[in-house]
């Protein structure tokens, strides 16, 4: 139906701009309309069309002079966890009402330096805590996908896009952005990518700078790209990655040309199949898809190998001690004094307590309380230290596996997208959505989700490739082979069925 | 153990046990984890980075120079340097602590056990053990007196590097605590790692006090926070020890609590915080990695340390022959020691010491200034000493010359010339003066020759008056004796 | 580990989050459930391994002692809900008075 500019992926748009088939302004205007059209999804908290046009015009001037930068004119959505100078930055929370940062995050600064255009700030679970984008102060995000009514009578409820980077995923999937930035602390890039049928890459820890990204759990937060294709992810990662002296945990390693690494050749690579990556009640179709994935890789000349990660089932509980602990400390700064919401009180402590009670949602409050508890006197050894020891064991499991294989293949999530409201009563049920993604966060390893097939209800399912530290190139290469084999050409109802 | 420091109570003698935690601001251009400036006295919130103000997404990066200063201080304290140390978050809420946590070091500080040697008034040396030194951020300033219902917060100081230096509870009196603090301050100034300026808050002290009967285990202690002068530390200790003794002798028990020293009333009183027992929930800061120091780098710092007071004092005694008391006075402040060394270079060290600790100190006290602002330079003082040594001027008149030097900053030679104070060494002239006096006082001469020896001093005085004090005393004696005999 | 209401109230106080009376019981149940769930970590023998605080393997990088920031009170005070002036562009954050 469409020769619409918004149907082009990043590489295609880049090539079209370079060849001057259309201008950056035209491309951005198409996306501004697409963003407006996608409002029913609630994927954006703040739209920045004027700024986008200004940036597009600057890109056009550079392109006209033949001085095009790698992402010139490419319209992207920025997860509202990244501080953008002078532009409202909320972290999806009431407690950051009105906050306009006087600084730009390192990663977004790099993207603007590369010529990208900012369409707006994407919705997210509050403070990146969640796997459904239903905890945002700004309301839930809808997945552009719906269950296919031919297959399942009547159930046309809106679905979650996954989280926490739900707005980013929905925007990319609905063609309301070419690409988006996300962050992944327990799976928040990969799981929504899987639910929305797009590509989501969590790089190695320290690969992308955390400076200017609102912190949730410092040792687990990973900024990364969300795109339509693996090639697009490679292009975005190259622009986003790099050592930052302002972030002490930033890795002092050079950034390779990821696009050039997409050779398509994975012959003789050994692909680990971790047999513990199975969850109770996981639909059989996911197991089938996983085996299909292994088969695709075998056909491409790689060698699937069964491996064991014996402690992997403890990754999730370890995560739900470590992440809340770090978060409880990182979120102490939200106190009504220097920015954001303030609820007045008779005393200072009352002001703190009322501000934070009003400003934080239920999930954030839950995690801050758990985190405070597990760090408190008498419990630190039993919980926090214990969890960090288990973390060390999980890292050892991966290290041992990588002596036998080059990367791992696993499902991304134990299910497809579920209906908004379906899991909201049971926090632990919500936490289990991250069971396959969390291990790579604990170990700081690069991992990508690639849309590989549809569920029985016609919803996207992703497969995950996990690699050695700083081997994003290898992970991308294997992922592209999967992508080629999977030929996932489906589009969500929101686009295909006619837009609003 | 000396019992004269103890408190005499109804139930016997009480020993005061004191431990000090000194917070010393690190001398550096920029803060410990950010690039904002550290200078004192700036307009509020003008020396604040978004990192210091704990804005969303901000991250700490450690200042190498601050680490160096901490290690140098550790070396100066003769302490173990821990090549691996860890930064921890100390979590609590207060408006001058923007992040809701302070970056500090808990279980693995950068410096371990060390010591400070005190020069006691009776000439003995007493060693006080240092438990540890760690790096941490300073907090901002809360002003509670600017508004009836608001506290104002200035974050200029938030994030400035501090060294927390903790002593073992080895101190046994307020006096000892005072000596310890002065010694520590002097050491830090020698090292250039802290300016020790308690008025400006660059050195502050938390004082832990408990009491016990000698030989018993330690009693419950109270902590008196943020005392900002040596005098107040001593007063606070005196008061608190007595308070605890009275409490215990009345049958009560000491409650472990945090107290403040009320300067106006000279008493300690409990702090009115809601939570007495803070649960700081320490954990390693995940935004930082372990601090790992290169042993060669540490060794390089050790080799480059300046000569420290204890070593300098020993050298003054052994190489320069100074009495230990004088040496101690000269090394107490590095500026004094350096001044003295320049005066003493190539001269009689004892003379130099006497002039510095005598006339110079008196003049500085009178003018209310420190030796860094001395109107007399070391070279000028040295020149004055030379003039005495080579007989140009008498010791007595030199004092007058010095007073003039202090008042005008002029060189001694110029003053001597201008005032005509040159010592008279011309034997003929002295002989003539003596003859004149003896002729005038002929009857007293007769008395002297008859046995009244005391009149000798009278004759000397008259001769000095007649020569306006300029006659060389040795020559006067020599010639006067000759003439009196004949 | 079962948390009781008093513990939840204490934790909330440490975290400076006001809880209504009516919330204490349900929260205690919820948090207890989560803590019980994470306690499965006790099944793991961790005696032979040290806690892993960070996956970043390098040592702490250090910066030069130069003033590179500050001197921008507008940026620091610009988002504050309440400030008090002090002359020029400088000023204070203002909070309810603390009694010491």
How does the helix and strand content of chain A classify structurally? Answer: alpha/beta
Largest sheet composition of chain A: 11 strands, mixed
At the fourth CATH level, what is the homologous superfamily of chain A?
Answer: Amidase signature (AS) domain
Assembly type of the chains comes to heterotrimer
- Report helical residue fraction of chain A: 25-40%
Q: Could you give the count of β-strands of chain B? A: 17
Mean pLDDT score of chain B, rounded?
Answer: 93
Class from helix and strand fractions of chain B? alpha+beta
Compact summary:
In chain A, strand 10 (447-454) and strand 11 (460-467) form a beta hairpin. Chain A is α/β, with parallel strands linked by helices and 500 residues long.
Itemize the secondary structure elements and their pairings.
The complex is a heterotrimer of chains A (500), B (486) and C (100).
Chain A: H1 10-18, H2 24-37, E1 44-47, H3 49-64, E2 75-79, H4 106-113, E3 117-122, H5 166-173, E4 179-184, H6 190-196, E5 199-202, E6 222-227, H7 230-240, E7 270-274, H8 284-299, E8 303-307, H9 315-330, H10 348-359, H11 362-375, H12 380-401, E9 407-411, H13 427-431, H14 438-443, E10 447-454, E11 460-467, H15 472-486, H16 493-496
Helix pairs in contact in A: 2-3, 5-6, 7-15, 9-11, 9-12
Chain B: E1 7-9, E2 12-25, E3 62-63, H1 64-76, E4 84-85, E5 88-91, E6 101-104, E7 114-119, E8 125-137, E9 141-143, E10 150-154, E11 161-167, H2 174-191, E12 203-212, E13 222-227, H3 230-249, E14 258-262, E15 267-270, E16 283-284, E17 291-292, H4 295-303, H5 309-318, H6 324-331, H7 334-344, H8 349-367, H9 378-389, H10 395-408, H11 412-419, H12 427-440, H13 442-449, H14 455-466, H15 473-485
Parallel strand pairs in B: 13-14
Antiparallel strand pairs in B: 1-2, 2-11, 2-12, 4-17, 5-6, 5-16, 7-8, 8-11, 9-10, 12-13, 14-15
Helix pairs in contact in B: 2-3, 5-6, 6-8, 7-8, 7-9, 9-10, 12-13, 12-14, 12-15, 14-15
Chain C: H1 5-14, H2 21-38, E1 62-63, H3 73-77, E2 83-85, E3 91-96
Antiparallel strand pairs in C: 2-3
Helix pairs in contact in C: 1-2
